[in-house]
Amino acid sequence: ISITQLGEARRALEEPLFADLAGDIGISFEFFPPKSEKMEAQLWDAVRTLEPLAPDFVSVTYGAGGSTRERTHATVARIQRETSMNAAAHLTCVEATKAEIDQVAEEYWAAGVRHIVALRGDMPTLGQPYQPHPGGYENAAALVAGLTRLHPFEISVAAYPECHPESGGHDADLDNLKRKLDAGASRAITQFFFSPEAYFRFRDRVAAAGITAQILPGILPVSNVAQTRKFAGACGAEIPAWMDRLFEGLDDHPAARQLVAATIAAEMCRRLYAGGVKDFHFYTLNRAELAYAICHMLGVRAKPAAEVAAA
Ligand code: FAD
């Protein structure tokens, strides 16, 4: 972040809380495919609650090792068919041949889905070093190139403000991001992070590398630090000590934890906004209320049903 940006950010931070957020924010949401009827009901409750906020798109994850291939497809296709929202399908390279992955992508195209979040993925067993399938796409950049050969998909890829754990450092990570964008992706969505400064430093490095694509910050509202820490280590995100302190003594107070979670995430978005960020991607974990509350604090309001349907 430059001195000027720092000055601007500081000035914005001195303004009254959330008072300067006035309807120029773009949002998107991530869901995961449900495993049971109960989870399906919860997902659709979240989808219907968040739909009036008119997100730019919503995405649905692909289980480790491609384990949710059918469920991801069914969820994405249904959102695309039955709601006013543009659905994006996550797709990974893990344990599949190119032909199999191309087939999945063809099915998305046939279902009217035009946006793919193209990822390498991780091995099904946690901690197992990544091994490309002998007949598959070797990494996300190769997958992006493969998808663009099939159809003119809109393609988003992953980015890591605090570095991907397997990368050889910031420069290698940035080279890899550049390869994915050069191959045909038009946007990067970041891994979650809890330090706006980490995002700003990453944004500066990205700009210095001549990358102009959107770097959409991924926002994870955390209401359970222990659970988040379990998977944060494996995905290149640090959980700061202040977060533990904020949740101390709240184990038996789930409602208070939710309020704290919303406050932390909204405050982080406000700081990002003060540094010029206008678009936010929320990891919802299929629960609407936290994301809804944060969007509300950011000045995002539900639109009338007719307006949402016409968009
Ligand atoms: P890549 O961009 O291919 O990079 C992986 C690593 O390999 C990096 O360290 C990179 O630097 C290195 N690398 C790549 N190519 C080369 C090369 N030629 N030479 C040297 N090094 C190289 N996972 C899922 O299973 N399902 C999901 O739905 C899912 N959604 C996600 C959404 C977002 C927004 C993010 C940020 C992550 C998501 N992930 C998902 C996790 C992701 O699959 C893992 O982080 C995975 O370990 C890396 O995927 P990638 O697409 O970033 O891989």
From TrEMBL:
Keywords: Amino-acid biosynthesis, FAD, Flavoprotein, Methionine biosynthesis, NAD, Oxidoreductase
SUPFAM superfamilies, alphabetized: FAD-linked oxidoreductase
Cofactor(s), names only, from the UniProt record: FAD
Record's catalysed reaction(s): (6S)-5-methyl-5,6,7,8-tetrahydrofolate + NAD(+) = (6R)-5,10-methylene-5,6,7,8-tetrahydrofolate + NADH + H(+)
Keyword Glycoprotein on entry: no
Pathway(s) this gene product operates in, as recorded in its UniProt entry: One-carbon metabolism; tetrahydrofolate interconversion; Amino-acid biosynthesis; L-methionine biosynthesis via de novo pathway
Any one cellular-component term (Gene Ontology): cytosol
Enzyme Commission number: 1.5.1.54
Family matches, as InterPro entries: FAD-linked_oxidoreductase-like, Mehydrof_redctse-like, MTHF_reductase_bac
Domain of life according to the entry: Bacteria
A GO MF term: methylenetetrahydrofolate reductase (NADH) activity
Enzyme class: oxidoreductase
Single GO BP term: methionine biosynthetic process
NCBIfam families in alphabetical order: fadh2
Protein family per UniProt: Belongs to the methylenetetrahydrofolate reductase family.
Stored PANTHER family: METHYLENETETRAHYDROFOLATE REDUCTASE, METHYLENETETRAHYDROFOLATE REDUCTASE (NADPH)
Protein name, as recorded: Methylenetetrahydrofolate reductase
Organism name: Sphingomonas ginsenosidivorax
